[in-house]
């Protein structure tokens, strides 16, 4: 499919999501006119039928081109008629098994699957072809593009009846199906040369940033140095016991992202808050940005003029931050995917924060808890990969950690740890010794330790200053005993 057609499919998916069934007729009409002469019936035109036969003939003439057409993303479903689909499927199967390919072996394979006679059709395709094998890629891409366009029109055209029988949830299914049309699984197969070329391209992109952080700022320079920032397509999990400051850490990180300077400007952040309403998050942000006691904010009648000046300052500073919040307490992973996709297309989402994994509603309530969390973690990783954004999610840590002399959590202490460990690219624990030990010398110190890092080292904790009064994490300089508020201009 042409670039404009692929782009239009993405836009139609969002339009379906935003407008519901009301936009179906317009969507079908627009898709049908994406390319010259575009109409649903053109997918079965004589030209398309001819190209389909030529591709099948080329594959029988020279089986080495089968890999070439597959690499172009051609699928069995892209063929317009069932007989051509069946022949192509058999060609793929024979090639995969190493069986020599010619009209005889193809006919034999088809007739083993179906009682009808295939010899005349196969012979006609093989002998009446004028195609050159050199042009097979052109034929394949033409069939692929026409096929995807036809499938998209059929999907959207059938949505109205699906809503009538399956309800509004069918919209999500159609959107996922539409987006799958734009994915060419074959491009996942790369040579080492191609992989190295992409790696060099990445390094050149980083160099073009003139020293800027490659990823989205974490809110702490020490953590930025260790990770390079939150990276696109990474699924990051941060676990801690209650009262350690998980949500505050998330908000500090979100504001660090929203105040990113440099060539790229502020990072656009989305927050999924399943536990706290947006109003409470707003108060926490005012405390962080305005350096105003969170206790004072809970007692506004006792606030001083200075307190109100800090509130005004914080609101003025943060009103322009590109941050969006979904405060629903009963979201499924599909709901989160839908929201993230909407933010991505409408608000240019750069990073998604989730508070927290165990509060996400499972799709299958009959499955055991480990299976449910595995499905949720897999879904969050899919969001990161498909939308090409980092997803940072909070996680609970088991209560049993408090029964140990050393109460610093480890990877095994994450609730349903194996399910999360399998999907996460990075896993961190957040620990403050003063929560358990009143005599500690580390008052006001938080430890952020990587227990899984696909991109670097683990084990050595990053120390940060915690100011509970202001719900703020700051970088800590042990040599000078000073710290800097990265969120303050």
Can you describe this structure?
The protein contains 19 helices and ten strands. The longest helix has 22 residues, at 136-157. It has helices at residues 3-19, 24-32, 46-61, 65-71, 82-97, 103-113, 119-127, 136-157, 159-166, 169-181, 192-207, 221-227, 246-258, 278-290, 294-297, 305-318, 333-347, 369-387, 417-423, and strands at residues 235-240, 269-273, 323-326, 351-355, 391-396, 426-431, 445-453, 462-467, 472-477, 482-484. The two termini are 47 Å apart. 39% of the residues are buried. With 489 residues, the protein is α/β, with parallel strands linked by helices. The protein has two domains: 3-188, DNAb Helicase, Chain A (Orthogonal Bundle), CATH 1.10.860; 210-484, P-loop containing nucleotide triphosphate hydrolases (Rossmann fold, 3-Layer(aba) Sandwich), CATH 3.40.50.300. It is elongated. Helix 1 (3-19) runs antiparallel to helix 10, helix 8 packs antiparallel against helix 10 (169-181) and helix 18 (369-387) runs parallel beside helix 19 (417-423). The protein has a ten-stranded mixed sheet with strand order 3-2-4-5-1-6-7-8-9-10, sandwiched between helices. Mean pLDDT is 81; it is low at 1-10, 20-43 and 482-489. Helix content is 48%, strand content 11%.
Concise summary:
The protein is of the alpha/beta class and 489 residues long.
| Most strands sheet | 10 strands, mixed
Which blocks of ≥5 consecutive residues have pLDDT under 50? 1-10, 20-43, 482-489
The number of E-state strands comes to 10
Helix amount: 40-55%
Structural class: alpha/beta
Strand content: 5-15%
* CATH architectural label of the largest domain: 3-Layer(aba) Sandwich
**CATH superfamily grouping of the largest domain:** P-loop containing nucleotide triphosphate hydrolases
Could you say how many structural domains there are in total? Answer: 2
Order of helices and strands: HHHHHHHHHHHHEHEHHHEHEHEHEEEEE
Tell me the overall shape: elongated
Number of helices: 19
For the biggest β-sheet, the strand order reads 3-2-4-5-1-6-7-8-9-10
* First-residue to last-residue Cα separation: 47 Å
Radius of gyration: 28 Å
The CATH class label of the largest domain is: Alpha Beta
How confident is the prediction overall: mean pLDDT?
A: 81
CATH topology of the largest domain: Rossmann fold
